[in-house]
Amino acid sequence: MEEKGSIGIPKALMFYRYFPFWKTFFEALGWKVICSDEVGKRGKLVYFEDSCLPMKLLVTHSVLLKDRVEHLFIPRLVSLDRSYIMCPKFRGAPDIIRLATEGSVPIIDETIDLRTREHSLRSSFLRIGQRLGATVKESKEAFQRAEAFSLRFKREWGDRINALPLKQLFQMEVSAPLTSRGEMEAGSFRVAFVGHPYNLFDSDINKDILSFARGLGMKILTPDLLSEEEIDRQISGLSKEIYWSSGREIVGSLFHFLSGGVDGVVFLTSFKCGIDALLQEFVKRRLKTRGEGTFTPFLILSLDEHSGREGLTTRLEAFRDVMEERKGKGKISDNQISITKH
Protein backbone atom coordinates (compact mmCIF):
# COMPACT_ATOMS: atom_id res chain seq x y z
CA MET A 1 0.00 0.00 0.00
CA GLU A 2 1.29 3.43 -0.88
CA GLU A 3 2.52 5.42 2.10
CA LYS A 4 0.05 8.19 2.96
CA GLY A 5 2.04 10.18 5.50
CA SER A 6 3.37 9.88 9.02
CA ILE A 7 1.79 9.46 12.43
CA GLY A 8 3.78 10.25 15.56
CA ILE A 9 3.37 8.16 18.68
CA PRO A 10 5.02 9.57 21.83
CA LYS A 11 7.10 7.00 23.65
CA ALA A 12 5.25 7.45 26.93
CA LEU A 13 2.39 6.16 29.06
CA MET A 14 0.41 3.32 27.43
CA PHE A 15 2.81 3.15 24.50
CA TYR A 16 4.45 0.52 26.71
CA ARG A 17 1.53 -1.84 26.39
CA TYR A 18 -0.34 -1.08 23.18
CA PHE A 19 2.33 0.06 20.74
CA PRO A 20 2.45 -3.29 18.86
CA PHE A 21 -1.30 -2.98 18.23
CA TRP A 22 -1.18 0.73 17.32
CA LYS A 23 1.78 0.42 14.98
CA THR A 24 0.36 -2.59 13.14
CA PHE A 25 -3.01 -0.87 12.67
CA PHE A 26 -1.61 2.37 11.23
CA GLU A 27 0.91 0.63 8.99
CA ALA A 28 -1.80 -1.67 7.64
CA LEU A 29 -3.62 1.49 6.51
CA GLY A 30 -0.51 2.77 4.75
CA TRP A 31 0.78 5.24 7.33
CA LYS A 32 4.37 5.48 8.50
CA VAL A 33 4.69 5.36 12.29
CA ILE A 34 7.36 7.56 13.86
CA CYS A 35 8.20 7.27 17.55
CA SER A 36 10.05 9.74 19.71
CA ASP A 37 13.47 8.87 21.14
CA GLU A 38 14.39 8.53 24.80
CA VAL A 39 14.93 11.89 26.43
CA GLY A 40 18.12 10.59 28.07
CA LYS A 41 20.77 12.52 29.96
CA ARG A 42 21.10 15.21 27.32
CA GLY A 43 17.39 15.80 26.95
CA LYS A 44 15.29 18.29 28.87
CA LEU A 45 11.82 17.80 30.28
CA VAL A 46 9.10 20.20 29.21
CA TYR A 47 7.48 21.39 32.43
CA PHE A 48 4.12 22.30 30.94
CA GLU A 49 2.18 21.31 34.04
CA ASP A 50 2.91 20.18 37.57
CA SER A 51 2.26 16.47 37.30
CA CYS A 52 3.87 13.06 37.70
CA LEU A 53 6.98 12.25 35.68
CA PRO A 54 5.14 9.94 33.20
CA MET A 55 2.80 12.77 32.19
CA LYS A 56 5.70 15.23 31.91
CA LEU A 57 7.38 12.76 29.56
CA LEU A 58 4.24 12.54 27.40
CA VAL A 59 4.35 16.31 26.95
CA THR A 60 8.10 16.28 26.24
CA HIS A 61 7.89 13.49 23.66
CA SER A 62 4.92 15.13 21.94
CA VAL A 63 6.74 18.45 21.63
CA LEU A 64 9.77 16.65 20.19
CA LEU A 65 7.58 14.91 17.60
CA LYS A 66 5.24 17.71 16.53
CA ASP A 67 7.37 19.08 13.67
CA ARG A 68 8.20 15.65 12.24
CA VAL A 69 4.75 14.20 11.55
CA GLU A 70 1.36 14.94 9.97
CA HIS A 71 -0.58 13.68 13.02
CA LEU A 72 0.04 12.87 16.67
CA PHE A 73 -1.76 9.87 18.11
CA ILE A 74 -2.91 10.68 21.66
CA PRO A 75 -6.03 8.62 22.37
CA ARG A 76 -8.42 9.74 25.11
CA LEU A 77 -8.23 6.66 27.33
CA VAL A 78 -11.25 6.59 29.63
CA SER A 79 -11.54 2.87 30.31
CA LEU A 80 -9.61 -0.19 29.16
CA ASP A 81 -11.91 -2.49 31.11
CA ARG A 82 -15.65 -3.11 30.92
CA SER A 83 -16.20 -2.04 34.52
CA TYR A 84 -13.30 0.16 35.63
CA ILE A 85 -11.67 3.44 34.64
CA MET A 86 -8.25 4.93 33.95
CA CYS A 87 -6.53 7.69 35.90
CA PRO A 88 -8.24 11.05 35.03
CA LYS A 89 -4.92 12.31 33.61
CA PHE A 90 -5.39 9.96 30.66
CA ARG A 91 -8.73 11.53 29.79
CA GLY A 92 -7.22 14.99 29.60
CA ALA A 93 -3.97 13.98 27.89
CA PRO A 94 -5.05 15.07 24.34
CA ASP A 95 -6.11 18.48 25.64
CA ILE A 96 -2.86 18.96 27.53
CA ILE A 97 -0.84 18.05 24.42
CA ARG A 98 -2.96 20.32 22.22
CA LEU A 99 -2.10 23.23 24.51
CA ALA A 100 1.55 22.26 24.83
CA THR A 101 2.01 22.03 21.05
CA GLU A 102 -0.03 25.22 20.51
CA GLY A 103 -2.25 23.47 17.97
CA SER A 104 0.66 23.12 15.53
CA VAL A 105 -0.15 19.51 14.63
CA PRO A 106 -3.49 17.64 14.30
CA ILE A 107 -4.09 15.20 17.14
CA ILE A 108 -5.92 11.92 16.72
CA ASP A 109 -7.68 11.89 20.08
CA GLU A 110 -10.37 9.26 19.61
CA THR A 111 -12.05 8.24 22.87
CA ILE A 112 -11.56 4.64 23.99
CA ASP A 113 -14.01 3.57 26.68
CA LEU A 114 -14.58 -0.17 26.83
CA ARG A 115 -17.58 0.30 29.11
CA THR A 116 -19.65 1.43 26.11
CA ARG A 117 -20.30 -0.09 22.70
CA GLU A 118 -19.94 3.30 21.04
CA HIS A 119 -16.40 3.72 22.28
CA SER A 120 -15.31 0.08 22.26
CA LEU A 121 -11.83 -0.63 20.96
CA ARG A 122 -13.09 -1.82 17.59
CA SER A 123 -15.55 1.05 17.11
CA SER A 124 -12.94 3.63 18.11
CA PHE A 125 -10.35 2.33 15.67
CA LEU A 126 -12.87 2.10 12.85
CA ARG A 127 -13.55 5.79 13.39
CA ILE A 128 -9.82 6.48 13.40
CA GLY A 129 -9.53 4.67 10.07
CA GLN A 130 -12.38 6.73 8.65
CA ARG A 131 -10.70 9.94 9.80
CA LEU A 132 -7.54 8.86 7.98
CA GLY A 133 -9.46 8.24 4.75
CA ALA A 134 -9.69 4.45 4.92
CA THR A 135 -12.76 2.47 3.96
CA VAL A 136 -14.67 0.44 6.53
CA LYS A 137 -13.32 -2.77 4.99
CA GLU A 138 -9.73 -1.52 5.12
CA SER A 139 -10.14 -0.45 8.74
CA LYS A 140 -11.66 -3.79 9.76
CA GLU A 141 -8.82 -5.70 8.10
CA ALA A 142 -6.24 -3.45 9.75
CA PHE A 143 -7.90 -3.94 13.14
CA GLN A 144 -7.90 -7.73 12.75
CA ARG A 145 -4.26 -7.71 11.71
CA ALA A 146 -3.37 -5.55 14.72
CA GLU A 147 -5.21 -7.86 17.11
CA ALA A 148 -3.49 -10.95 15.73
CA PHE A 149 -0.03 -9.41 15.89
CA SER A 150 -0.62 -8.10 19.40
CA LEU A 151 -1.49 -11.60 20.62
CA ARG A 152 1.67 -13.05 19.04
CA PHE A 153 3.75 -10.30 20.59
CA LYS A 154 2.28 -10.99 24.03
CA ARG A 155 3.10 -14.71 23.78
CA GLU A 156 6.77 -13.81 23.27
CA TRP A 157 6.86 -11.36 26.16
CA GLY A 158 8.53 -13.62 28.73
CA ASP A 159 11.42 -14.24 26.35
CA ARG A 160 11.69 -10.61 25.22
CA ILE A 161 11.85 -9.17 28.72
CA ASN A 162 14.68 -11.54 29.68
CA ALA A 163 16.71 -11.45 26.47
CA LEU A 164 16.52 -8.03 24.82
CA PRO A 165 17.89 -4.66 25.92
CA LEU A 166 15.18 -2.34 27.20
CA LYS A 167 15.45 -0.09 24.14
CA GLN A 168 14.64 -3.06 21.88
CA LEU A 169 11.63 -4.43 23.78
CA PHE A 170 9.14 -2.68 21.51
CA GLN A 171 11.13 -2.87 18.28
CA MET A 172 8.87 -5.39 16.65
CA GLU A 173 11.31 -6.31 13.90
CA VAL A 174 13.66 -7.64 16.60
CA SER A 175 12.94 -11.15 17.89
CA ALA A 176 14.03 -12.58 21.22
CA PRO A 177 16.60 -15.42 20.98
CA LEU A 178 14.82 -18.75 21.19
CA THR A 179 17.31 -20.05 23.75
CA SER A 180 16.77 -17.20 26.19
CA ARG A 181 14.32 -18.96 28.49
CA GLY A 182 16.50 -22.00 29.10
CA GLU A 183 19.57 -19.88 29.66
CA MET A 184 17.82 -17.67 32.18
CA GLU A 185 16.40 -20.55 34.24
CA ALA A 186 19.77 -21.77 35.47
CA GLY A 187 21.14 -20.22 38.65
CA SER A 188 18.94 -17.11 38.67
CA PHE A 189 16.52 -15.44 41.06
CA ARG A 190 12.92 -15.23 39.91
CA VAL A 191 11.92 -11.63 40.59
CA ALA A 192 8.57 -10.00 39.78
CA PHE A 193 8.67 -6.34 38.76
CA VAL A 194 5.24 -4.77 39.21
CA GLY A 195 3.95 -1.31 38.34
CA HIS A 196 2.33 0.71 35.57
CA PRO A 197 3.77 -0.36 32.18
CA TYR A 198 5.52 2.96 31.69
CA ASN A 199 7.24 2.72 35.10
CA LEU A 200 8.46 -0.76 34.21
CA PHE A 201 9.70 -0.17 30.68
CA ASP A 202 10.47 3.54 30.20
CA SER A 203 14.21 4.01 30.75
CA ASP A 204 13.69 7.75 31.26
CA ILE A 205 11.72 6.82 34.38
CA ASN A 206 13.49 3.73 35.74
CA LYS A 207 17.04 4.37 34.45
CA ASP A 208 17.04 0.95 32.73
CA ILE A 209 16.88 -0.85 36.05
CA LEU A 210 15.63 -4.06 34.40
CA SER A 211 18.88 -4.49 32.49
CA PHE A 212 20.82 -4.06 35.72
CA ALA A 213 18.56 -6.59 37.43
CA ARG A 214 19.27 -9.13 34.71
CA GLY A 215 22.97 -8.48 35.19
CA LEU A 216 22.53 -9.45 38.85
CA GLY A 217 21.15 -12.84 37.82
CA MET A 218 17.46 -12.03 38.10
CA LYS A 219 14.90 -13.62 35.80
CA ILE A 220 12.16 -11.01 35.39
CA LEU A 221 8.42 -11.64 35.57
CA THR A 222 5.81 -8.92 34.99
CA PRO A 223 2.02 -8.58 35.42
CA ASP A 224 1.58 -9.10 31.65
CA LEU A 225 2.08 -12.82 32.29
CA LEU A 226 -1.01 -13.11 34.52
CA SER A 227 -4.59 -13.64 33.37
CA GLU A 228 -7.46 -11.31 34.20
CA GLU A 229 -9.07 -14.19 36.11
CA GLU A 230 -6.04 -14.50 38.38
CA ILE A 231 -5.99 -10.75 39.03
CA ASP A 232 -9.70 -10.81 39.93
CA ARG A 233 -9.21 -13.80 42.23
CA GLN A 234 -6.42 -12.11 44.15
CA ILE A 235 -8.38 -8.91 44.87
CA SER A 236 -11.75 -10.52 45.48
CA GLY A 237 -11.33 -10.37 49.25
CA LEU A 238 -10.65 -6.66 49.54
CA SER A 239 -13.00 -4.68 51.75
CA LYS A 240 -12.99 -1.75 49.31
CA GLU A 241 -13.35 -1.74 45.53
CA ILE A 242 -10.47 -0.50 43.35
CA TYR A 243 -12.01 1.53 40.54
CA TRP A 244 -8.86 2.05 38.44
CA SER A 245 -8.13 -0.78 36.03
CA SER A 246 -4.37 -0.28 36.33
CA GLY A 247 -4.65 -0.25 40.11
CA ARG A 248 -6.53 -3.55 40.14
CA GLU A 249 -3.84 -5.10 37.96
CA ILE A 250 -1.03 -3.85 40.19
CA VAL A 251 -2.60 -4.94 43.50
CA GLY A 252 -3.70 -8.30 42.11
CA SER A 253 -0.23 -8.91 40.69
CA LEU A 254 1.48 -7.95 43.94
CA PHE A 255 -0.78 -10.27 45.95
CA HIS A 256 -0.14 -13.09 43.46
CA PHE A 257 3.63 -12.79 43.44
CA LEU A 258 3.97 -12.08 47.17
CA SER A 259 2.08 -15.30 47.91
CA GLY A 260 4.97 -17.35 46.53
CA GLY A 261 6.56 -18.71 43.37
CA VAL A 262 9.20 -15.97 43.17
CA ASP A 263 12.30 -15.06 45.15
CA GLY A 264 11.41 -11.38 45.41
CA VAL A 265 9.01 -8.65 44.31
CA VAL A 266 9.87 -5.08 43.25
CA PHE A 267 7.15 -2.42 43.06
CA LEU A 268 8.10 0.57 40.89
CA THR A 269 5.97 3.62 41.65
CA SER A 270 5.84 7.22 40.43
CA PHE A 271 6.22 10.06 42.89
CA LYS A 272 3.09 12.29 42.88
CA CYS A 273 0.93 9.39 41.68
CA GLY A 274 -2.06 9.36 44.02
CA ILE A 275 -3.16 5.94 42.77
CA ASP A 276 0.22 4.37 43.57
CA ALA A 277 0.22 5.90 47.07
CA LEU A 278 -3.18 4.35 47.80
CA LEU A 279 -2.19 0.98 46.35
CA GLN A 280 0.80 0.79 48.67
CA GLU A 281 -1.57 1.01 51.63
CA PHE A 282 -3.66 -1.90 50.31
CA VAL A 283 -0.55 -4.04 50.02
CA LYS A 284 0.99 -3.05 53.36
CA ARG A 285 -2.25 -3.88 55.19
CA ARG A 286 -2.40 -7.28 53.52
CA LEU A 287 1.20 -8.02 54.55
CA LYS A 288 0.48 -7.16 58.16
CA THR A 289 -2.14 -9.92 58.33
CA ARG A 290 0.37 -12.64 57.45
CA GLY A 291 2.41 -14.64 59.92
CA GLU A 292 6.08 -13.96 60.58
CA GLY A 293 8.48 -15.86 58.37
CA THR A 294 6.10 -16.24 55.42
CA PHE A 295 7.04 -13.11 53.49
CA THR A 296 8.56 -12.85 50.07
CA PRO A 297 11.25 -10.11 50.00
CA PHE A 298 9.54 -6.92 48.84
CA LEU A 299 11.17 -3.72 47.58
CA ILE A 300 9.33 -0.46 46.82
CA LEU A 301 11.11 2.11 44.65
CA SER A 302 9.57 5.56 44.13
CA LEU A 303 10.72 7.24 40.92
CA ASP A 304 10.81 10.84 39.72
CA GLU A 305 12.99 13.06 37.53
CA HIS A 306 15.55 13.35 40.33
CA SER A 307 16.06 9.60 40.70
CA GLY A 308 19.63 8.55 39.91
CA ARG A 309 20.76 5.22 38.50
CA GLU A 310 23.41 4.82 41.20
CA GLY A 311 20.87 5.02 44.01
CA LEU A 312 18.52 2.57 42.32
CA THR A 313 21.24 0.03 41.58
CA THR A 314 22.59 0.23 45.14
CA ARG A 315 19.16 -0.64 46.51
CA LEU A 316 18.74 -3.44 44.01
CA GLU A 317 22.09 -4.93 45.01
CA ALA A 318 21.02 -4.81 48.66
CA PHE A 319 17.75 -6.46 47.70
CA ARG A 320 19.61 -9.31 46.03
CA ASP A 321 21.58 -9.79 49.25
CA VAL A 322 18.28 -10.12 51.12
CA MET A 323 17.08 -12.77 48.67
CA GLU A 324 20.36 -14.68 48.99
CA GLU A 325 20.08 -14.64 52.78
CA ARG A 326 16.49 -15.81 52.64
CA LYS A 327 17.40 -18.68 50.35
CA GLY A 328 20.20 -19.65 52.71
CA LYS A 329 18.12 -19.53 55.91
CA GLY A 330 14.76 -20.53 54.47
CA LYS A 331 12.97 -17.50 55.89
CA ILE A 332 13.27 -13.76 56.35
CA SER A 333 13.23 -11.57 59.46
CA ASP A 334 10.84 -8.63 59.92
CA ASN A 335 13.41 -5.98 59.11
CA GLN A 336 14.04 -7.58 55.71
CA ILE A 337 10.47 -7.52 54.51
CA SER A 338 10.43 -4.16 52.77
CA ILE A 339 13.05 -1.69 51.64
CA THR A 340 11.55 1.62 50.48
CA LYS A 341 13.11 4.51 48.58
CA HIS A 342 11.27 7.83 48.85
For the record, the count of structural domains works out to: 2
The SSE order reads EHEHEEHEEHHHHEHHHEHHEHEHE
Helix content bin:
40-55%
What does the largest sheet look like? 5 strands, parallel
Gross geometry: globular
| Strand line-up of the largest beta sheet | 8-7-9-10-11
Summarize the structure in words.
The structure is a single chain. With 342 residues, this protein is an alpha/beta fold. The chain folds into 2 domains: 5-153, Rossmann fold; 171-341, Rossmann fold, CATH 3.40.50. It has 14 helices and 11 strands. Strands 8-7-9-10-11 form a 5-stranded parallel beta sheet, sandwiched between helices. Helix 14 links the parallel strand 10 (298-303) and strand 11 (338-341). It is globular, with a radius of gyration of 20 Å. The chain starts with a strand and ends with a strand.
Topology:
Layout: E1 5-9, H1 15-28, E2 31-35, H2 53-65, E3 71-73, E4 76-79, H3 88-100, E5 107-108, E6 111-113, H4 121-131, H5 136-155, H6 157-163, H7 180-185, E7 189-194, H8 197-201, H9 203-206, H10 209-215, E8 218-221, H11 228-235, H12 245-258, E9 264-270, H13 274-288, E10 298-303, H14 309-329, E11 338-341
Parallel strand pairs: 1-2, 1-3, 3-5, 4-6, 7-8, 7-9, 9-10, 10-11
Helix pairs in contact: 1-5, 2-3, 4-5, 11-12, 12-13
